[in-house]
Amino acid sequence: MTVFLIAWQMAVSAGWVNEFFLPGPVRVFGQMASMVADGSLFIHIGVSLARVAGGFAIAVLVALPLGMAIGLWRPVFHLVDPWIELVRPIPPIAWIPLAILWLGLGETSKVAIIAYGAFFPIALNTLAGLRGVQRVHIWAALSLGASQRQIFWNVVMRTALPGIVVGLRLGAGMAFVVLVAAELILANAGLGFLIQEGRNQLMTEQIMVGIVTIGILGYFINKGLLWLESRWIPYRESVHATR
Amino acid sequence: MTEKIRVSGLDMRFESERLERTVTALEGIDLCVAAGEFICLLGPSGCGKTTLLNLIAGFLQPTQGTIIANGSAVTGPGPERGVVFQEYGLYPWFTVSQNIAFGPRMRGASRAEQEEIVRHYVSLVHLGGFEQHYPGELSGGMKQRVSIARALANRPDILLMDEPFGALDAMTRETMQEELLRIWDAEKRTCVFVTHSINEAIYLADRIVILSARPGRIKDVVRIDLPRLRERASSEFFELYRNVDLILREELARLRAGPDVVEDAGAG
Predict the structure, then answer these.
(1) What is the ipTM of this complex?
(2) What is the pLDDT of residues A180-190, one digit of tens each?
(3) Which residues, 6+ apart, have CB-to-CB distance to B27 below 8 Å?
(4) Do B186 and B124 meet the contact criterion of CB atoms below 8 Å apart?
(5) What is the tally of structural domains in chain B?
(6) What CATH number is given to the structural domain containing A61?
(7) Structural domain that includes position A74
(8) How many domains does chain A have?
């Protein structure tokens, strides 16, 4: 990482790269520092995070139960699956014009699109997780005297958990991607907006600040999710070690 | 001697709609197992021994006939019939302790009771020190011990075992057989053990129920009167091996003669 930063700065200082197109790390971090100092960076971060969190939360609340329902009950699958397969190929961004029309230019439209983007990875991975339930595990539970409810929580959900966690991680990733896209197009605050404003005002280093901040944020969020995963699925290591 | 399991007039047919075929897995099975008895179901591949075990366990419903276990008819799986599976069936998300405590926990045992039970069975199967390990961190033999401990921890009246040592190497297998007898001796339960190994059956069983294949019928029942622990290399052992082997060879010869011959023979 340090080597990269040094090389980057050298390229700029030596004049190989036009500073307008790619400002050196010194200027980018300088800009960042001043935005941290006056608090503006945190406002943008806060706004973006709030949208991502809101959209993601909605997606989880809808996609998780729906994915489970589809996996557990055939009739639900037959009812819902065609719709999912029809809508899934439509990228979130394509819905933006309609979202603006139906939900206005405020937060609702952005959060809705983010939720849409996170919905599919969560639902489909939850479904995949459920599909992995093994008959021998259910049989074992039955012969040990477990009730249907106990089997659901101790066998079915536990089998599905790794899949669900993958879905959550992918969903969070999608939520972020959609957030930036949505903010680029219709926002007055937030990291995506920062990038767009930087572009409009020809302040490349502001664009870079937006990009770098998004990268850092995404990195920490992913790290957080991986930590959660290691706590919920501590046996994962051992599973990979054998089969 | 009380009767623990009674199988009467059992038929098991599997229908395949796709292939428009009916496979008769078992036909006319009549079997009695006394309390505390250790019997082996022995036979070539496809003779229905696992199917019979699964029927006794209650995972499958017979096409015809009845199974009475512990005085009541078998309608489904239940904790009085513990099962040890060939593939172990251990829960990878639970530790050894949690796997063993599973049955008691589901049935409402208190924390203290669970801990006591786990302690007892972990030491019984010689897995002290591995309580916090996950199944993925254990060898095959160890996994099977956990599997046995988990089944026993629920205090079933009947223990059903489906080729539990099939996936183990020969040495581990012999060790596990001795271990199993030691464990069984400590807590005498009625045991139905499925195997395709003559040696294993003679070493372990009070009686060997030999099944024929296609359709699965009881071909013979051989009583083993040798006291345990049996000498694998004794002349009595070899004698028994010869007898059982002869019976099985007859079966294999019949099968090799061709499926058509078998179906027409009918009155086997």
Answers:
(1) 0.89
(2) 888 888 777 78
(3) B11, B12, B215, B216, B217
(4) yes
(5) 2
(6) 1.10.3720.10
(7) 39-231
(8) 1
- Chain B CB within 8 Å of residue A133 CB: no
Range of the domain at B102: 81-155
Res A65 pLDDT > 60: yes
Residue A81: both structure tokens together: 């699956």
Is A147 in CB contact (< 8 Å) with chain B?
A: yes
Which positions ≥6 away from B212 have C-beta within 8 Å? B43, B47, B218, B219, B251, B254, B268
CATH number, position B21: 3.40.50.300
pLDDT on residue B31: 93
Residue A233: closest CA among chain B residues belongs to which residue? Answer: B93
Length of chain A: 243
Query: Are B77 and A242 inside 8 Å of each other by CB?
Result: no
Tell me the mean pLDDT in the region A168-197.
Answer: 85
In a domain, A222, yes or no: yes
**Burial class, B174, CB count within 10 angstroms (exposed 0-12 / middle 13-18 / buried 19+):** middle
Mean pLDDT along residues B115-121: 94
Indicate if B70 and B196 belong to the same structural domain: yes
Chain A nearest-CA residue for B77: A143
Q: Which of A137, A139, A143 sits opposite B91 (nearest CB)?
A: A137
Q: pTM surpassing 0.95?
A: no
Q: Residue B54: closest CA among chain A residues belongs to which residue? A: A139
pLDDT of residue B267: 43
- Taking an 8 Å cut-off on Cβ atoms, the answer to whether B136 and A144 are in contact is no
> Does residue A13 belong to any structural domain of this protein?
no
* Closest Cα in chain B, distance from residue A149 (Å): 10
